[in-house]
Amino acid sequence: MLTPFPLGRPARMAVLASGRGSNLEALLEAFPPGHPLGEVVLVLSDNPSAQALERARRRGVEALALPWRGRRAFEAEALAHLEARGVDLVLLAGFMRLLSPGFVEPWYGRLLNIHPSLLPAYPGLHVHRRVLEAGERETGSTVHFVDQGMDTGPILLQGRLPVLPGDTPETLERRVLFLEHRLYPRAVRLLLLGLAFPPSPALKPLLGEAFPLFQALPPREKPLYLRALALLRRWGQEALAPALFLGRAGEIGRAAFLAAHLLAEDHPALRQELKELPLEVRAPAEAELGRVESSP
Known about the structure:
Low-confidence stretches: none
CATH class of the largest domain: Alpha Beta
Number of strands: 7
Distance between the termini: 27 Å
CATH superfamily of the largest domain: Formyl transferase, N-terminal domain
Structural class: alpha/beta
Helix content: 40-55%
């Protein structure tokens, strides 16, 4: 298995937050109690005064403050709460601590973070100021799998925005936050539906001669290929994986790549191209798009 999802039941999710919790609010809105894909059942914060805790409590979600007494103590408490509540997926939303390998490794593939830049560019803090100082004309946000580094894990989904003349760190932050409130729930939906996963050793035998091609892809391109691969698997066409990565999978491969693009961001030209494919390859792709786009 390349991914533990879908589970065949609603996922139980926990959110770790340190501050105001605006991304938490977006997740609570997107995954309310009774949602068929999953719901947020627990919010943990290292900051007892975090607004995120109040946001969760107002919605009836269990919210616990675990005052910071060092990383080892915090992680031990957090892991105990996650296990006790049968959590399947952990989402970091403005959580301002770096987790240890002992925490990250058991949760790899089930631990996400959102970062306000187009990773791998601008990891760490003070992102918007650094983007402006560098004269960038484009910025965005990245949902990524958490690994042992700081904002270094495999990318799941990205969204892009322009940097406008006269922008300040504050105007850029507001624009990126608006994007994030839509991007993070969409990324979680893709993961829970089994349409996103991090690279794993299982890819090597699956891709065969095409594996070096995948390894050579830039970090921002790999998620597209992985979504296309996930679609092939859902369509019972996993044997076409090497041909897909080599551009030899015919109309099925084209449908997979078009749908993989559209799962990240709608584009009229790509949607029209998908409509022009034969019904037998178009219909499964459109069904997958409908599942993601119609999800509450």
